[in-house]
Amino acid sequence: MSISISRIDESESTTWNDYVDRFPGTNPFHRWEGLQTVADYSGCRLHPLVGYNGNQPVALVPLYEHSARGRTLVRSPPRLVESFPLGPVFAPPGGMKRRKTERNRTEFVDAVQTWLDEHVDPSYVHIRAGPVVSDVRTFQWNGYDATPFYTYFLDLTPDPDDLLASFSRDARTNVRDAEEAGVTVREGDKTDVKRIIRQVERRHHEQDESYPMPVPFVADCYSRLPEGAVRAYVAEMDGEMVSGIVTLETEDVIYRWQGGVKYGGDAPATDLLDWHVMQAARDRGIEQYDLVGANMRRLCGYKAKFSPEPVVYYNLTRHDRLHQFLTDAQSLADGLVHGFETLRHRVDR
Questions:
Q1: Which among 5, 102, 189, 322 is most buried, taking Cβ atoms within 10 Å?
Q2: Which domains can be identified in the chain, with CATH numbers?
């Protein structure tokens, strides 16, 4: 029996969340509340798709449709939360044999592509698959390019003393020095979420960098997602906030979502802040700390000192010839502009 695709609507949101709870590899943005909040702030149209084998759900993927320059684009996730993979995710295989598992997954991807062609007809599709989707052949067979990217996972199950001992020497020293300097860490509330995001936004602006994360969006995620799915951790010294992290979490994984920027004081507060997040998550039974990204060289040095493991995930892209032509033309134009600017700068000198 082939896989059929159903587009879920608001009346079936409870069913969708039930699948999200059952399928491995999901994160809080897979939940209906998260999907709708992202849709509200991204301006995209949400297509929550479920694949069924008869009456049995075998996979799901939320897709976001939007238009740009007269072309229809599909992304999962949208740029607003581009650091979080949104699918697809598959039902646990249970006792299913490898051949049937692969057939279900292949037919699901085939069916999703057929649904897209018939209902959306996009010129470009970008899907960020999570680490649980290590086999991307089914997408490649449907014309997708698969590009590997990386994140860091830290195992939180060891004894706290052993976990701390696995850190680099400077990380251990920073944790100790921050404690001795009087830095304290507490879990905050919605107000603290806003404070942390505003500080991160301010830091980006100081560096002439854009920051796409609106404060109200993160605050609404805190309010709309289940209690505890979004948490704020605040590091303070002498009564002033010197750093903060906003995390996301499931039963198994906590994500270092936003923040971790040092705002003031001389003590190395961020190392202590991360260490507190790890311990608190471990106490709640969470087994993994996802440091959310291991692709920017300048950030990997900090994250790697906690001795995490690099884990691969894939960006999957598919485009028609017109989109490729326009993309290539834009790249050529950008290159010419840069070349002329460089030449003009040399002449002016």
A1: 5
A2: 4-143 (3.40.630.30), 152-312 (3.40.630.30)
